[in-house]
Amino acid sequence: MTNANDNRTLKVGLIGIGAMGGVHLDVYERLARKGYPVELAAICDLKIAELKNDRLAAYALYDSVDAMLRGETLDAVDITVPTPFHAELACSLLEQGYHVLCEKPMARTSEQALRMAEAAAASGRTLMIGQCLRFWPAYEFLKACVTDGRYGKVRAGSFFRGSGYPLPWYLNGEHSGGCLLDMHVHDTDIVNWLFGLPAKVSTSGRVVAPKGGYDIVSTNYYYPEGMVLNAQADWTLEGDIKFAMTYRVNLEGASIVFADGEVSVHPVGEPAFQAELPEDTGYYREIRCFLDAAASGQPVAVCPPESTLATMAIIEAEQRSAELGGELVAPRTRTVNAAN
After folding, report:
1. Of the chain's two ends, which shows fewer C-beta atoms within 10 Å, N or C?
2. Helix, strand, or coil here: 241?
3. Does the pLDDT at position 1 exceed 50?
4. Contact, 102 vs 79, CB < 8 A?
């Protein structure tokens, strides 16, 4: 392991080469082709012998994290394994001096997430959680509109995310946290990113799959400003709907709608138009942001661990509210202590 702050090529190890690991692999290969100073030096997966193919053969392959760390000189590690393993892996790697990019959700519980944030603060290394919507052009555009006030204050907003049933392990709510923690966390994180911690939340949820967590959820977020905000998620969609993510936000001077991959803006008294957005996906932009922070030694600006820790607090308030039949619940914030 070496110091990344010297303008040289960052060496990264990738843990997990399932669906999301494959997405991250695509990004690292694209960055390398574009001349970005990064090298994906190694890939680790418990089932690497089964998964090995011609493409993966170009990398050093391991079936043990310890073996990868012994065998490679790495600056950073990218974690794309199931949620229950995030905290232990991230904390161990940070304590050993590696920068860490960890897929969302941050952890299985906010207590685990707090340990991750504290490990990052104590180690002085970069920790970033892959809440990719913060880097998705359609949501970056909305963030800019809310932040600079170009259309006035927000009055209301609704966010939706849905798909057909995920892989079987996700349907075990004890492991994945259900749709609430795994899918709905995207829009909860966007609400947090746009408006900060809500005063209270009210959530309704339904368990559909055996052993499921909440597979269908709908949350109302309450702020002193009086905005009417709701986010829904459902990973039990039937028929030919494979995936959908949308939003509608009503401001004093315009309505902004994201649907079918396009953002339309409807200003008061002016013709509607489609926002011009960068073509890069959120995954590409998020990984580049992480690498930039790791290389420069500067804090992560868009997605710091303290912020995604707050998202975990909101999710757990939503879980408690759903269990109480939709009662209003205030998120329990946690303070990062670097001395722990």
Report:
1. C
2. coil
3. no
4. yes
